[in-house]
């Protein structure tokens, strides 16, 4: 069937606004914009979330109440019924020789005059109910006699079901997508070069889009989605590989000495040997820093695996070369903890450090010392990337919990250097290898897959309301033996929007109730830095027996004597949060237990509790969290510099990702800049990816 532009008779551009289609005025265009559909390109890539199989026709004489059925028959009667106000009702009866059925269409009485004429052939799809006998209530309909050449959209086929917003109907969206597919010029929509498309037996984009929306068979829809997903991931892998090649050019990096006096002195102060995993990753980092190529390395590992000690080695090497280092963390509490840890290790060795956070005192003087080179190391939050912060000779940028920063923020820290610095990113959220290829394909990825000796496994238990008294008795036994306890609450103060324990109120309840007579401390993110520091010092010193806190203790706090944690309303937290919180205990020689309280009211909440109790490895927890929430929610693709994919599923399409990676490597080996004419479409998509990453 031939299609033309609904306005001019010529093909429309993909970037034309959706309002060029009939029936889309300003109001409907605004509703579509709420779905992220502004252009015809957005519309044709707004794929169905599922399909309803309406290919088989049920005989009318065999229908029963509650059947989901598609039927075909001839109109034997139709009438328009006027309701209160200006509403009308269309009542139509169809017959197929085996029986008959009524269908009612609320608010659509006009269809009796235009579509439901006696003798017309109709296809109806819907649930069979009761209205003065068996009836279909507001079914989807298709009038076959309107145009014998036209394919049905709403019945008699695999029918697409789209993500919608209030005010739009499936019928509207199907019709607009159908019109757009026939009206736009899709000749330039293919991204993968023809040889790769032939190699993997992939359909051209025009045919793939047609089958993705209105497939002939279920197999055709799967093949179409594969073709469209391959285009997406090929462009992404090409972008990541090109970025990696650009960043690792010889001569762009600062060549460090890796056996200097500060590094040797640091080794002399270590009271423990590095684990084999730490030693392996340190060797890789030192190899990176000894070369004249800028380091771009991500180190990921479970809670408590010793990433900070590994990062210390990189700092020592950088400072031995006479350059400065910066460590950026996403929260003040984590930045403060890093500052204290680095200070304990490096200040005795003569290193001058600065803490730069939103509430740190003396920021102006600290910035002056960094700008002059008087201070060698800066630890801070987003304050490090403010225009007022400068460095005399920045050589190393370390970014902790890096997925919580946007690409532009990470690049801005590196941009503080006069010459391209080494970049070391740290993450306590381990991810599968294939997903790492997607999120961090432009970096070298190392894994610390070993915990230091002496770390105790943590038993995790879910405590129902009836078990709270027993839990508190068990906790008192631990306290009597000299152990310490964390109690973690989801909120600082009570909220009318969330039913969860608040730390301020819970602290008072515990102090007057289960922990009366004990030494309690209170910690939350709204406290001033010196107040938080004093609370943590008291807890570390053992002066406080129970620390009641929010998630500010999620990272960066190391108290080996703490062997018990109570997480209130645990279902309010994500799996990775629960695991990171749990990682605060089990750091000493004592058996440790983590109690999870609260009654989950949703299936995902119950699943989180069940899985955190069953899993101990951070890699297993991360896999489970990704499966439940998806990578977009866990890592935030906009933060990671990636668009939300329209088609590809980063968890389900692992083999496709690896195939695209191999294809992109081979393609760039012969055309590093994608300069050949046959690679022009791929190059445009790569450039679009880079533009999105910079926003």
Textual characterization of the structure:
- It is a single chain.
- With 695 residues, the protein is an alpha/beta fold.
- The model is unreliable at 1-8 and 495-499 (pLDDT under 50).
- α7 packs across α23 (654-670), α14 (433-439) packs across α23 and α19 runs antiparallel to α20.
- The protein is globular, with a radius of gyration of 31 Å.
- Helices cover 38% and strands 18% of the residues.
- A seven-stranded parallel β-sheet has the order 11-12-10-13-14-9-15, sandwiched between helices. A six-stranded parallel β-sheet has the order 16-21-20-17-19-18, sandwiched between helices.
- It has five domains: 1-46 and 162-184, no CATH class; 56-156, OB fold (Dihydrolipoamide Acetyltransferase, E2P) (Beta Barrel), CATH 2.40.50; 186-247 and 653-695, no CATH class; 261-448, 3-Layer(aba) Sandwich (Rossmann fold); 458-615, Rossmann fold.
